[in-house]
Design a protein that fits this description.
Radius of gyration: 23 Å
Number of helices: 10
Mean pLDDT: 92
Number of domains: 2
Helix content: 25-40%
Low-confidence stretches: none
């Protein structure tokens, strides 16, 4: 966990740097859905889990699109947009948490802002007239159009926000119909690491009322899970707390997917083996990056019964923990790296020990993605 977060923050300066940053992420986001498909094919995610993760990836791409509109005129209209996008340059590469909080607040007021802005067509017509009459760049009109596009994106798209509340997907009945089987999923933009994180939990519900329709339990479950959506907590801590707090809900598997960090020779600072790899691969724009994708999994190994009162008892889970001594709080941890072919070639030449066991998804020619272990 970081101790002095602001030392790792940097405000992007000027339109060129800002556009280059968003162009890099647009390329990265364009590949992640196919990486999710390959992860499903290789058994790293189940089919339902993969579809959920791809939904969050689309929402994350929408959030980046919205932020790119907001900061489109960065450095050119400093009186209207006094600060540029702030990113975390160490062990993240993503915008800082406060950027997502502000976007969520803007989304609540997007309709009011749009009511006060001219239409996209009107703004474009005004820009043409301004250019013809004044022979100058219509910066203020360009800014108004960028803000309109920003608020339209907030209104019309599904977004990845600082908190993305739990949802339940019914997967069928188990135990002769006595229990219902759900996939719960939720996500957060972690305030300490400035990373998007997705959570997936398989549960069995032995309650009388189906969980999503239970007016008492479902709000409690949602509040509990969002409060525990902190990357500093180990999976076994999250799962054990859930198991103890809800006697009729039985967590059978918990997964956490970290979408990042994004490492870039241009935008971030790295101290490990990737520093030299990305520096050597940085000759051509767009080839100096790598994105980490980490999946932690914890599953229930068996169950036991615990007394909860004089005449009552509850089922409790005994979780399978990694026996390798890693103290990860998970049953297994799968680490992947997504990177362009040039960066992968340099990585293979250097062959640093710390990355030898990491799955590599390599963006090859013709938009192909190749998988290497």
């Amino acid at each position: 966990m970081k101790t002095n977060l602001t030392l790792d923050h940097k405000a992007l300066e000027g339109a060129y740097e800002t556009r280059r940053y968003f162009a890099k992420f647009e390329r990265i986001m364009g590949h992640l859905s196919r990486v999710a498909d390959m992860t499903m094919d290789e058994g790293g995610l189940g089919r339902n889990e993969g579809r959920v993760v791809k939904g969050y990836l689309r929402a994350l791409a929408n959030s980046f699109t919205a932020l790119s509109y907001k900061h489109l005129l960065a450095g050119r209209v400093s009186d209207l947009l006094p600060s540029g996008l702030t990113i975390d340059t160490t062990d993240s590469g993503f915008p800082i948490y406060q950027e997502l909080l502000q976007m969520a607040n803007d989304a609540l007021n997007a309709g009011r802002h749009l009511d006060n802005l001219a239409t996209e067509k009107q703004l474009k017509q005004d820009m043409v007239r301004y250019i013809l009459n004044e022979h100058k760049t219509p910066k203020r009109l360009q800014f108004a159009l960028s803000q309109r596009l920003y608020y339209q994106e907030l209104m019309n798209s599904s977004l990845f926000l600082a908190q993305n509340d739990p949802q339940a997907i019914w997967r069928g009945d188990v135990g002769g119909g006595d229990r219902r089987y759900y996939l719960l999923h939720w996500a957060s933009y972690d305030s300490q690491t400035n990373l998007p994180v997705v959570y997936l939990m398989d549960i069995e519900d032995s309650g009388r009322i189906a969980l999503p329709r239970d007016r008492e339990r479902w709000p409690q479950v949602q509040s509990h899970l969002m409060a525990q959506a902190v990357s500093a907590l180990k999976l076994v801590t999250i799962a054990h707390g859930f198991d103890q707090d809800f006697d009729e809900l039985h967590p059978k598997k918990l997964r956490r997917v970290f979408l990042g960090p994004m490492y870039s020779h241009w935008f971030t600072r790295q101290n490990g083996p990737l520093r030299d790899v990305l520096a050597e691969a940085s000759g051509k724009e767009g080839l100096d990056w790598a994105l980490a994708w980490t999946t932690e999994t914890l599953w229930s190994e068996k169950t036991t019964t615990e007394k909860t009162g004089f005449f009552s008892s509850a089922e409790r889970q005994i979780f399978n923990l990694d026996k390798s001594g890693s103290d990860s709080g998970a049953s297994e941890v799968q680490r992947s790296l997504i990177l362009p072919q040039r960066a992968y070639q340099v990585l293979e030449e250097k062959n640093p020990p710390g990355l030898r066991g990491v799955r590599k998804y390599v963006l090859g020619a013709g938009e192909r993605i190749l998988s290497y272990k």
